[in-house]
């Protein structure tokens, strides 16, 4: 009877430490993961999501985890790995916010609809962010994130510190990719704004007595809204494709 009890206690301890190691990496990743790490979500919800992912991931990677507390020095590397992977995916949300800022500056739509986000940003950026998160959830973000978490243990075993050169290259390439994606989404608005201002300048030169700003401002707002209805869906499809590729292989952001 005592032998059975010892075996049960041993299995319980092994399961606890396996779950602990998974939670360290997953918790750091969930804290910044798109959709699950938003500032508008309560901390208890984020904790519940991290625990749910831990329950899903731990059985799949249990053989790769230490079952004792002998490796507590690996806590920092595990948290760093999870945070880095989560930040690479978080850059896709920043890309939408950057695109929204560019669109707002180009079309003077920054004050329309009103912002409802805790982070200060133009309303267009908030709309793009909410639309992007809805698309991400619709494409099965939770399933892809769980697969990414499981696969991360093959690329980064427990306790393996990430090389500083990889962090630098990953970070700079991820930021560059985010700005490239943001400009790809907002390019139609930048081109439209350029054409609009050139036309307005020509009209002002031809008719100096005409108050072109009073005539052109409503046209700019209407044109911006019409262009949003046409161009934003295509831009979000491009964004969704890029996010899906990053979820399959986060290192793909490195050229």
Largest sheet: none
Total helix count? 7
Count of spatially separate domains: 1
Number of strands: 0
**Segments where pLDDT lies below 50 for 5+ residues?**
4-11, 112-118
Strand fraction equals under 5%
SSE order, as H and E? Answer: HHHHHHH
Instruction: Output the radius of gyration.
Output: 24 Å
Q: What is the averaged pLDDT score?
A: 78
Task: Label the structural class.
Answer: mainly alpha
Distance between the termini: 60 Å
Helix fraction, binned, reads over 70%
Q: What overall geometry do the principal axes of the alpha carbons give?
A: elongated
Account of the 3D structure:
With 255 residues, the protein is an all-alpha fold. It has one domain (2-253). Helix content is 76%, strand content 0%. It contains 7 helices and no strands. It has helices at 2-32, 43-61, 75-107, 123-138, 141-155, 164-206, 212-248. The longest helix has 43 residues, at 164-206. Residues 4-11 and 112-118 have low confidence and may be disordered.
Structural features:
255 residues; single chain; mainly alpha
Q: Summarize this, please?
A:
By secondary structure, the chain is an all-alpha fold. It has seven helices and no strands.
Explain the layout of strands and helices.
Elements: H1 2-32, H2 43-61, H3 75-107, H4 123-138, H5 141-155, H6 164-206, H7 212-248
